[in-house]
Design a protein that fits this description.
Distance between the termini: 24 Å
Strand order of the largest sheet: 1-2-3-5-4
Shape: globular
Number of strands: 5
Radius of gyration: 13 Å
Helix content: 10-25%
Largest sheet: 5 strands, mixed
Number of helices: 2
Order of helices and strands: EEHEHEE
């Protein structure tokens, strides 16, 4: 067994108590950056917000397509070669 690891943070946003999960896949070379992104989606409860940070253009486009197919709205943020998707989970995966 080889355990997949990725950088993930969980924080609460102010008094609203909104949970934000941040998954940073930049520099991932051993496997597709989509793996930790999808794992985070499966581990997250409905109502929680996920932020996925990537620097892999193809995986970023694939994740956007997947979210669209699932009817999940998202926000795209571009900062140089870093790309971020923010979205809220509506249902359990």
């Amino acid at each position: 067994y080889k355990t997949l690891s990725y950088l993930a943070f969980q924080s609460e946003n102010g008094s609203r108590g909104v949970t934000m999960i941040t998954v940073d896949t930049r520099g991932t070379t051993a496997y597709s950056p989509l793996i930790p992104a999808i794992k985070a989606m499966c581990d997250t409860s409905p109502g929680e917000t996920i932020e996925i940070i990537m620097n892999h253009t193809d995986a970023f486009q694939n994740l956007k397509e997947y979210l669209s197919e699932q009817g999940i709205g998202f926000r795209e943020i571009y900062d140089g070669e870093q790309m971020t998707l923010e979205f809220t989970i509506n249902k359990k995966f």
